[in-house]
Amino acid sequence: MNGSQANTRMSLNTFLYEHFKRAAAAAIIDCVSIGLGYTAVTTDAGGIGVAYSYFKSKRSCQFLPDFQDCEGRSGLTLLEGIRSEEPLHRSVALAAINALNHRAAIQLTEDSHNIALFDVKSAKLVRCYLFRAEGVEFEFRESGNPYVVVE
Hints:
3 strands, alpha+beta
């Protein structure tokens, strides 16, 4: 990352921190779930936020060397992570920001022109009208997994 990118990231993260610190101080973290793909945060006020889990490395089962249990604590505990150099701290903080912004986000109008094609080769021109997908069907098959999770 060059100096300009670092400054842009820092100024955006500082803006996010300043913008959400009052809401974070008033919020209590209900649940934090850090997954291999996404991180989710919920608050006592019903907010829910999701963000991509960005890992520097996935070489062990413990991704945060300074882990602390944030559930039941002030939202500021997670918001502080937006200014961290650790990417996963920033991911958790962004999920918390999305949870704090939940009520405002659900008031936004839906973008009805979002179109998703999962198999581009199966698409064909039917008519020159806009269509909306009414359903998606997924098929799952087990693929080889050398890891076994035992609880």
